[in-house]
Amino acid sequence: MYPDAVLFDLDDTLCQHERTTADRLADAFAAAGVDPFFTVDDFRRWAPRVEGEDPLDFREQCFAAIAEEQDRDVDPAYRVAAAYEDPDPTDVRFRPGAEAALEELADDYRLGLVTNGGEAHQREKLDALGIADYFEAASYATPETGIKPDPAPFHEVLADLDVAADRAVHVGNSLTTDVAGAQAAGVATVWVPAYEPTGKQSHAPDYTVDSLHDLVPPPWA
Question: Is the residue at 221 inside a domain?
Answer without folding.
Answer: no
